[in-house]
Amino acid sequence: MTDDTKMEFELPIPNTFERIVKLDFNLREIWSYIRLTFLYQKLLGYNKNIRASIINKEPKALALIEDVERLKNQIIDENLMQVKAVYQFFKCHAINNEIFIDFNGKEVVLNFPRQENDPFLCLSDYVAKSNDTIGFLVVTAGHEILDYAKKIELEGSYKDAFILQGLAIATSEALAEMIHHQMRIMWGLEEKVERSYDAGPPRKYLGNRYSFGYPSCPNMEDQEVIWQILQPEEIEVTLTESYMMIPEASVSAIVFHHPNAKYFNI
Amino acid sequence: MNIESKLTEIMKKRILIIDGGMGTMIQRYNLRAEDFGGEQYEGCTDYLVETRPDVISEIHDEYLKVGSDIIETNTFGATSIVLGEYGLSENTYKLNLKAAKLAKEAAAKYENRFVAGSMGPTTKSIVVTQDITFDEMRDSYYPQALGLLEGGVDLFLIETAHDTLNIKAAYQAVKMAEEKVGIKVPILLSTSIAMAGRMLAGQDIDAFFSTINGLDIFAIGMNCAVGPKDLHEPLNSLNQLSEVPIFIFPNAGLPNDIGEYDETPEEFASQIGKYAEAGLLNLAGGCCGTTPEHIIKVKEAVEGKPPRQVGDLPKQFTVAGVDRLVPDDKIKPIVVGERSNVQGSRRFRELIRGGQFEEALEVSKQQVSSGSQILDICLEDTEFNEIEAINTYFPLLSKSIKLPLMIDSTSPDAVEAALKHTQGKAIINSINLESGFEKLERLIGIMKDYNAAAVVGLIDEIEGMALTLEKKKEVTTRFYDLLVNKYGIPPEDIIFDMLVFTVDSGNDEKLKGTSRATIDSIKWIKETYPQVSTILGISNVSFGLPPAGREVLNSVFFYHCVQAGLDLAIVNPATLMRYNTIPPEEIKMAEEILNSQSLEALTTFSNHFRDRDPSKDNVIARANMTPSESLESAIVNGTKTEVISDLDELLETMTPLEIINTVIMRGMGEVGILFEQAKMIVTEVLQSAEVVKLAISHLEPLMLTGETFTKKKVLLATVKGDVHDIGKNLVRIILESNGYAVVDLGIRIDSTQLIRAIQEHKPDAVGLSGLLVKSSRYMVSVAEHFKEENIDIPLLVGGAALTPKFVENEIKPAALGQVHYARDAMAGLSIVNMIFEEA
Fold first, then answer.
1. B801 contacts in A (CB within 8 Å)?
2. Which domains are present in chain B?
3. A61 to chain B: closest CA residue
4. Is any Cβ of chain A less than 8 angstroms from the Cβ of B693?
5. Fold (topology level) of A3-256
6. Which residues of B32-55 are buried (b: 16+ CB within 10 A; e: fewer)?
């Protein structure tokens, strides 16, 4: 264990260990967690820095934003997006590279790879040897919006279809961000404060969340564990043979509270 | 001796010195709120003439002491608009009067010093922010001009102008004040050219000069915005253009990080000295950041250097929008776009009648893109109020059309309303004597107030339109004499409309020979009055003839008019056939009509073209036509409104397949290039694809059975395990709108499914997509499986986790056929194009 991962703080305890399924959301609140660069530059292919372009009032950027806002309104007016989330805290402890999760009295194990060079990090380092807790979440923007996008694409509305697909992906990411925020509040890591809708996602917080398939936890097979303990089938998110989620606009994550948790490559 | 002659006399001998910055000097006093008369006025430097006249007098004195010939009143912001921000608009006249008197008192202590009434740009802009009307702007300047004049200023300095329309308003306010007081003083106009060489409202020095040149101006120059070095280019241009004295009084360099100007008096003066050395200056001084120390140095630097001398410059027709337009002998004539005309274009009329101004603007924009150099705008209609339409449409035009405008109306009120929205130098279309002298004189007054050129129709109060060569000569001579000698209009601002009548004159003997008379009159007028210009509405000549023949006759008539010296043509450039593509026998037939207008020639011509099947016309000539260009630009711009009507016009001469293979593919080709150059973004490309889809869905039902427009077939799939299909969908749309048939197998497709689909659909290429590292690996297995099955069709691979290296090292060695890495959808398209071009 490196200095970074020592447990020199009081372990937080979540205010509930119940499994929470949430189907009723205010979409504008979710969208306030969207990162603009992710939506406009990565998903929608805008070819310059979107923030600078907004400041410079670049017509292309403004036209694109207008399209996005129009479609957001349409999503709300016509109820086109059925977002859903399931999340839960579990008691757990870590030994070496493994995290042992207490799932209804039986132990479920997640094994993570460790870096082969200094600082030899492994995700299990972010969990204490005893009496710790960990969170899991699965969220989705639902298949309805993607089906709708497909439909209008066939009718020839290519641009709107493309933007709606991008918005669906961005919404699932934003929802993950929002649920993660909620979970930090439940852990007592943050006070609940009123956020304005144009605030953008919180930038600094305690802990971190990781999705399987990314560098710190590359094993997609471990998605099975999440499906075992969270049962995201209830919110209509299923896994393919290579453990990817359907619908596409879904996010699964494992949530740590450790203040030094960061992203690293194996 | 009046001021003007006195100044002229001195300026023959030396360069006159204007003072330096006022604000910069005021800052040295570290004034507090009470100096401004209380907190509510703090920062209102124009109010200091009331509250701290001693400060202002002292600054004037300092500048006089160092040898400024001209000092400026402390009235830069003393218009009712700016003073209104401090609740002082009622004091406008009084403050200006006071400021003028203070400066005059200071100057009176010396001999031959002059006071310039400073009139700044205000905080609003008619063109840029459109937050004020022309009339409001003029009325805000008026009490300022009146106060300054009655306070005794020797000249006016309308300065730091960033919007030429604001200047025209200020100029008119000065003229009104002069009329009221009964005194006339010289006016100096000074524009503010920013680093990019343009004013805030867009004009460069050439366009600015052309716009104000006809006004009654004593001297023209530039101030503020930049330092002396940055004015090199614009000063040289101004030197070549201006017959009146020119000047600069720039800033002490560009502002530094904390907004201060730090060019030293030496640096500042040395550059001005260089300009003086080159003979470019009649007056010089300083603006922001300059002080009496700078002015001393400027005086030393220009000492003994001769002032700029100007002889007579050649006069020529000039108009301006954001840029200046002058005739170019190589590309004669100047093309005037005719379609933004409610009387000439049904579509434009319907849009304006329906209040769809934004859509109407598209029509005007299209005229620009199809090569017009001036836009004729006519909003005169029986169904709506012309002036209201002007007040809505012209502000839109001024935002998006950079060309000079031709204001087409018979109502002087409407013409003036339009000019109040027009930044540049416009053309009034038209003035004549049909309704007598009163209206003529009103329009001439407007020409002068706004410095507009005018089309003069050969129509008089006695015989109406001039039909014969003799009558045309007579009316031209009379009008020229009236306008130039009686009313003082410069000949280069006169454009004679020699009038065009249809050759199909039927039994009307009076109309026989009119087309020949028109051509001959142009030749005559260019010899007799070389300074005036000529204009014709070309297409009138073929009115009533069969459509296929009209273009030929228009083109031949146009050719002869240009040969005769025609300067401007109201024409749709895209519908003119190229003269050299017309068969010689058809040229001969057209010339026969133009020369004789005989019934026989007309009958031969009409029969020839009536019998012609329009669809057999030369495809290339047809492709030059408007609907094709219009469709192409609709694809590039992603606008759907005109697509169907363009297609319907195109279908008269082209098969659906020809339209797709030429016009539509060219449009998408252009889109591809623009995307490559990062001039279009993905969503814009998709919008273009939508236009193509709309066009093709309109054309498809019209195609013959068995006819197909698809080039090649491409199979697409997101590979096994992967659900990401946005990228793949993009590829499909792009390929489809470029004429490929696409079979999209969807997501999570394994190699067995792929092979089955290949056997069924027999594609020419396969595209694989996948977001994950795992998907990239799976592509290797697909390639291997294809090899086992002996499938060698080209493979395109793309996806976030793929790298060119991985494709090179892993997928290529596994495959039997070609493998190409497609970075994005457009790259995919060019690869597919390349593969099949080679094949």
1. none
2. 3-302 (3.20.20.330), 319-458+466-607 (3.20.20.20), 621-702 (1.10.1240.10), 713-838 (3.40.50.280)
3. B681
4. yes
5. NADH Oxidase (3.40.109)
6. eeebbbeeebeebbbbbbbbbbeb
